[in-house]
Structures
1.
Amino acid sequence: MSNNFPYIKNINNFIFIMPQKISNKKNKEICRMYKDGISCQKISVALGLNKKTINKYVHQSNLMRNLSEACKKYKVNSNFFSTYTPKSCYWAGFIAGDGCIIKNHYKEALTISTTNDRNHLKMFIKDLDSNYSINSYKNNIYKHKIIYTIKIHDQKLINDLLNNFNITPRKSLTIRYPIQMPQKFNRYFIRGLFDADGNIRKDGNRFHFRIISGSLNLLQTVQNILIKNCNLNQTKIYIDKNSNAKQLEYNSKKVCFIMNFLSMPFALSRKNLRCL
């Protein structure tokens, strides 16, 4: 009988459904879904495997949740991105940089990952009035670094990010600036984007400000807003031919005007620049 179907054995006229043999790839998929809080029953339906198989590989991977963990319900303010506020626009900008919408055959999830700012993710969870947990993993490329990740399953939250902030699955190269957002919130969205995908430093009397994105439209609109509000000149947006990454950069004392425009109490403090 094919491995795509349960093994069935007839022992003394009793029918037993035995666990199926599966590939390492399928085993990893089971573990990933189970870590996301999905039940064995739902994994079974999604992957077309019998529940005995799911239970077997979950046990072998030492992932089985106890009763209290299995019954735990995560909460989140589903309406957080329904309206434009300073914090909703800031976090939408942060997600535009360091977040993504994962879409597959069983559900969508909002994921944010960072290598340095676990406390910032804790602030995000607090602002969402949520009890979602932060997971940590070793960076496969830079072994000494830890990746902190939060994954949220809430369709209303995800739909509002799409409708109000243009955040879609596979957004890296295609995301467009949310021009439907009221102009008074531009600074919050841009600061969130900068905290996720930007950096700033001071070299003597020279300041360096940079935001990197895969979307040219996003950076062009950001630049136009900064020019209007920070008395800047237009500069060329550099495009890396190898990675296709786009880079908006300013190198002058006028960078202080940018940072004053983007100053806010809940922004990432390590990326503040004190202009004397």
2.
Amino acid sequence: MVFFKAVTSNIKDFITFFSSINSAIDDIFTLYVENDGLYLKCELDSSHACITNIKISKSLFTSYLFKENFNIAINMSSFLQVLRLGSDGIMELQYEKSSDKITIKFIKGNDSSKSFDLRLFDIESREILEIPETEYDVSMNMASSEFSSIIRESNSFCDTIKFNITKQKISILSNGEIGNYNFSFKPTTDMKITNNIDSIEFSNQYLIKFTKASAISSDVNIKISENYPIRILYTHEHGFIEFYLAPKITD
């Protein structure tokens, strides 16, 4: 009996959601299927430094047959490998209750189709982490392409990036052996700064991975508070990708 079936012609965006986060999470991930869409919930990387959340709304699909909530564990590399074999036409995702596989089918017009049964994994059930609500000291929007450029440029100098923020100026810095990088700009009226951030540091290694999500959105929202993970949000008309990264501990 078909327990879940979703159909979309928007294969490119579906693939982009997953290719945008594949380097930020472990290779085996848990996909949550719910009435309003597909989720990744608080996926931790192996070092437990960053958290990834995704929602792909059912509005991405032309048909969304759903019986009840369930979750399955999938190998990301294999999943993307199969998805990239069918970049046009129509894609169907199909799952039967308690099955050890998910079927991915690509249909091209009335002439041809191909299907793949992708093996699922048994993993221990885990509690979904609860991220406490917080009033961030800083919330700012910028073009995702600009944010990507800043992260790449700063990484040329050091694998650590530092934020110094006041209501008059935002500075993003990297200081390394070859020299120093400093990108500064004045806050715009739509940026919220309630408290200064004297100095908070994050790993560029992770931020570079996060910027891959610029493929789903032209804008990015960044929220920062002292001694709290940075929150980076990319929104899409059919969902979002959200990252949290713990600050680096400095002496």
3.
Amino acid sequence: MRSSILFVLCCLSVHTLLADETKLTFTVDGVAYSNVTFGTVTPSSVTVFHSRGIVNLPLAKLPPELQKQLGYDAQKAAQYEASVQQAMQQAAAEQAKKELAQRAWQQLAAAERAKQELARQEAEKRVKQAVDEEQQKGEVERTKKLVQSNPVDLFSIFLKPEQQEHCGLYKLSQAERNSLAKICLALCSSSLGDSAVEYLKNEGWEEVKVLGTRRLKLHEWSVVEEYLIAEKGAWTYILEPRSSSSLRPGKYLGKMGSSSCEIINSNGDAVRFTTEDKR
């Protein structure tokens, strides 16, 4: 574009008067210029060196004798000005086009970077989720193996520090672990880890509600005696031996059968009973 403008200017016969060609004084728009030397001349203007500095003046405002000397032609001057204006407009349009293309490229690059960052975050999230799931699966498997090695007293896993760590109970305070072992609310305690709940379900232990003791006559030939009563779902169980100081009314874990059952007491021991179940 710059070369095009220079070509247009050259075609319009731009020329320069040397410093020794003329030295004179004249007035334009009330301003006097003395010791004048002409510089670059275009069809519409001239560069003037004078005693106070440099100025570019339109040829149309110079005295007639200077216009004639500098070859001023009003029609050619107008054509020249129109050509210069057109060249400037074209240059501005090209610059605006370049800036628009650059902004579009920058926006596209920013969008691509955002897309890549989102993909990276999603990939990290999937990897973390897979690792967490694998760790949880491993914890469940370790807990199952511990239970299989000691199936009678399941709550012993809460009493041994090395087993507490395998079950994830190290995250609880000592007071929370002691309370958990005593109250035996494995299926409904929100403090119990998922792995412990999983193995208890797999081993068939369920929540049992001990109601306390009642005086009952079980058979026509028997006398009225005191028995321990428990419930699981819609079933009521009459337990013998008739009482147990470690089974106060409350919720426990148990394996209930039609003729016998086991209930884990508040000390973590599995107590065996014979039962008579009733709807």
4.
Amino acid sequence: MFRSWVAAKMTPEKNPAMHAWAAECVRALEIERASKQAEVAEQAQRLQDLAGSANVAAWRSPHVLALTTAIYEQNAFDLMTTLGAALADAGCRDTSVLKHCSLPNHVKGCFLVDMLLGKE
């Protein structure tokens, strides 16, 4: 009985201010949900950047290992785009790994170089 009374009082015609407030709350919740989804996607990307990909062992061709060793030992991180091409040739289809290789400003500690070399 109470529900039917409340429902009757909450129509937009009978209580426009309450209806507008409720609509604004729904919009705010939708914006918050979209923001949280974007935050979760960003956090997932950060975790992947830290943890890397589980398929690294399959990409360790002699060419990839030689190139990765040279990058690491000579701080030749300008060769990361070349490493990306070598990984693709070795069967890597992980777009996030290949994209990572095309990004600038790599340094020692790069998760991909470390994982390819088996460093912890």
